[in-house]
Amino acid sequence: MAFKGRDVISIRDFSKSEILQIISLAKELEKKPSPELMKGKIMASLFFEPSTRTRLSFSSAMERLGGKVLGFETKEFTSVSKGETLWDTIKMVSQYADVIVMRHSIEGAARLASEASSIPIINAGDGANQHPTQTILDMYTIEKELGKLEGLKIGFVGDLKYGRTVHSLCMAMSHFKPKMYFIAPEALKMPKPYLDDLSEKGIEYVEEADLMKFCGELDIMYMTRIQKERFPDPVEYNKLKGVYRIDKSITQKMKKGARILHPLPRIDEISIDVDDTENAAYFRQAANGVPVRQAILALVTGALK
Ligand code: NCD
Q: Bridge-partner residues for 206, per DSSP?
């Protein structure tokens, strides 16, 4: 299917070959900057929830392609604070831009926006649900760091219940015959629908609470932040915060060549003494957001086929 005019709401909307196509285009854009590609196009950047990397790397991607950016980074100064609906906001904005990048705290908000919008909507995270562009940059990073996507042992660690990056990445990697390790305390386990999906596809997985048990087996350790803002009860968050912490001594138990990824921000789950180990890939991962988002913006606006 062509990309032009398409929304990017869930990673499930993209086939294996489409994901690989985006990755290969991102590689080309990284090698060969194209400062004129999006000239005359406008990206609306609508962040109803906090963001640093996602918002700035989307803006950087657009501007490095010669496009322009408008939008807001907090909903407080928009008409949403006067009571305007998401539907009306999107209806308006879709007349001011060529593509909308949107982050929202409510699951399904991006899908709703895509129904109101006449231009492509890119989901930059909807509640605890999905974060598809993060997933493609995570995969871009894995390919770049390890040279392949097929047949890897991937451990997801931390908040697997509320972590939208985990949900999207788990779905997308299931195309590549992985073995998955879901390492989380009981209260933050991977939601059952994702596990059922893996079982249906015949993907092998284990669930475990002890990080040390499998840490020597993993090719990729995908570390995550405990998603404080999603907890209905702060007492529950306080019980679980700090549950996992990787430091240099843990990296010494990892397989040679294994990589630690993290969508960031980190709180205390990766100690800074890990940053200069060969395992630490998370800052390079954050940089990869720019070419990957360039590829996505260029494809959905039809600037590239
Ligand atoms: C993640 C997110 O917003 O889901 N961050 C990001 O986009 N890089 C992960 C997180 O906030 O913990």
A: 181
